[in-house]
């Protein structure tokens, strides 16, 4: 035996090297491990940090770990130069939406329409009538910001921080040309703006606020949209097509998330290549709307339990059923709407408007209204409900910066002339009343029987 192979230390080192290389190669190419697969050609990211925060701001505190290591349907990304060229071409060829929106003035931003009125608009496209879609009360931003938003003609990435509940997080992995066709807009209220000024991140003397890639748009709190900051955040989340009428694609990013993949790559892989109107992750735990409703009350995400019950009873009475294979190609009734990718067109715009009308009528918990609106919408919308593992690899999630004793779920969603609830009332849980419907069984009895059929029979 050669002397070279008689060294135990050398043999062990070689074995360790080859074992490490094999494991690294397996992790790289195995779709059961990685949900995101890039081609060999690098996708040209910006190397330098987009913005440096002062240490007092605490941009990256409380990151939440991800525990899922498997993935059944990985996402393949094309080369960045090809993606950039194709999205520019798609934006040039995409025509404007023919929807006509209701104009006029109302006491509330959303109009607070009755159930019968809201239902009548699910086939409004066929009737060719004006569509209710918010903005029945002025959206309080200045004319300069409104003009800048109108100049976003291709892709817009939108987020919002109301009530100073989150930190502004800069995206990672941005391609060198992405900022040429992509607007990053962060809506903030007066409270959040004051906090940013106190951290010396912006100057109150400036007419234009910008932090890294994000351009800040101040939504004046004094104008009184909704008393609940979370409901104010619903406006840019679901009415993005109205705030940015010239944009062709949009990505909504909850302020608790940080993008770590270029937005153009996400739109191309999850929307354009899939041929859909919208892309959103499935909920990591729930498939049925009622499961989400019960969790909402159990975890006190909305303290008015009787309102949740009334909402579910209303939906059951008007056709909501649990998920079943008959709903395919929809893979679930409950999305994770922290990240929403849209192609601005008739179907996605209609869904967004109808969703907003339901949230205006009940509460900002959009997962409760999603399946009801989606299933009643005509024509059917094409949705890519991708794996939750994909979501966990395209974003990082952080904890909200909630204040002690405060919660976005404790106040009513619709404005009222009555004073805001006192701190004592805000924390009081409103219990549900006895079930509505014949014989006290409620309109959702059939829903529960279908949802629990396997365990009951």
Low-confidence stretches: 27-33, 404-441
Question: How many strands in all?
Answer: 12
Could you tell me the mean pLDDT?
Answer: 82
Helix content: 25-40%
Main beta sheet: 8 strands, mixed
Task: Tell me the span between the first and last alpha carbons.
Answer: 70 Å
- 3D shape: globular
Any idea what the radius of gyration is?
A: 24 Å
What is the ordering of alpha helices and beta strands?
Answer: HEEHHHHEHEHEEHHEEHEHHEHHEHEHHH
Structural category: alpha/beta
What share of the residues does DSSP label as strand, in percent? 5-15%
Give the count of helical stretches: 18
How are the strands of the biggest sheet laid out side by side? 5-6-4-3-7-10-9-11
Pfam family, one: TOD1_MUCI70
Domain TOD1/MUCI70 glycosyltransferase-like: 103-400
InterPro entries: TOD1_MUCI70, TOD1_MUCI70_glycTrfase_dom
Region (Disordered): 402-426
Q: How would you describe the overall organization of this protein?
A:
Helix content is 36%, strand content 12%. It has 457 residues and is of the alpha/beta class. The chain starts with 7 loop residues before the first helix and ends with a helix. It holds the Pfam family TOD1_MUCI70. This is Alkaline ceramidase TOD1 isoform X1. It comes from Spinacia oleracea (Spinach).
């Amino acid at each position: 035996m050669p002397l070279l192979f008689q060294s135990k230390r050398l043999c062990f080192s070689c074995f360790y090297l080859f074992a490490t290389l094999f494991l690294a190669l397996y992790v790289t190419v195995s779709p059961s491990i990685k949900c995101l697969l890039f081609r060999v050609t690098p996708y040209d990211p910006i190397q330098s940090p987009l913005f440096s925060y002062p240490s007092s701001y605490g941009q990256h505190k409380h990151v939440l770990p991800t525990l899922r290591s498997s993935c059944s349907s990985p996402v393949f990304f094309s080369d960045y130069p090809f993606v950039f060229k194709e999205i520019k071409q798609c934006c040039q060829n995409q025509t404007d939406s023919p929807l006509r929106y209701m104009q006029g003035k109302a006491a509330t931003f959303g109009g607070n329409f009755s159930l019968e009125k809201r239902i009548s608009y699910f086939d409004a496209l066929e009737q060719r009538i004006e569509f209710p879609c918010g903005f029945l009360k002025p959206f309080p931003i200045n004319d300069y910001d409104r003009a800048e938003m109108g100049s976003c003609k291709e892709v817009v990435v939108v987020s919002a921080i109301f009530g100073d509940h989150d930190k502004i997080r800069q995206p990672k992995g941005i391609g060198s040309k992405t900022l040429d066709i992509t607007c990053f807009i962060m809506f903030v209220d007066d409270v959040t703006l004051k906090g940013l000024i106190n951290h010396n991140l912006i100057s109150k003397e400036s007419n234009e606020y910008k932090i890294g890639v994000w351009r800040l748009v101040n939504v004046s709190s004094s104008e009184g949209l909704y008393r609940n900051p979370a409901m104010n955040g619903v406006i840019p989340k679901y009415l993005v097509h109205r705030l940015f009428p010239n944009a062709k694609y949009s990505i909504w990013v909850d302020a608790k998330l940080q993008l770590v993949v270029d937005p153009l790559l996400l739109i191309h892989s999850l929307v354009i290549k899939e041929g859909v109107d919208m892309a959103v992750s499935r909920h990591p735990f729930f498939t049925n709307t009622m499961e989400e409703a019960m969790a909402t009350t159990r975890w006190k995400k909305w303290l008015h339990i009787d309102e949740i019950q009334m909402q579910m009873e209303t939906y059951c009475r008007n056709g909501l059923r649990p998920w079943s294979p008959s709903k395919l190609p929809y893979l679930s009734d409950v999305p994770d709407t922290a990240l929403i990718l849209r192609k601005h067109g008739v179907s996605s715009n209609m869904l967004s408007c109808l969703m907003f009308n339901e949230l205006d009528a009940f509460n900002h918990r959009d997962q409760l209204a999603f399946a009801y609106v989606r299933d009643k919408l005509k024509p059917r919308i094409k949705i890519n409900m991708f794996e939750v593992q994909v979501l966990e690899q395209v974003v990082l999630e952080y904890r909200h910066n909630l204040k002690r004793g405060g919660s976005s779920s404790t106040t009513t969603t619709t404005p009222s002339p009555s004073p805001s609830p006192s701190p004592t009332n805000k924390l009081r849980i409103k219990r549900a009343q006895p079930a509505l419907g014949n014989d006290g069984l409620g309109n959702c009895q059939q829903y529960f029987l279908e949802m629990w059929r396997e365990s009951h029979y």
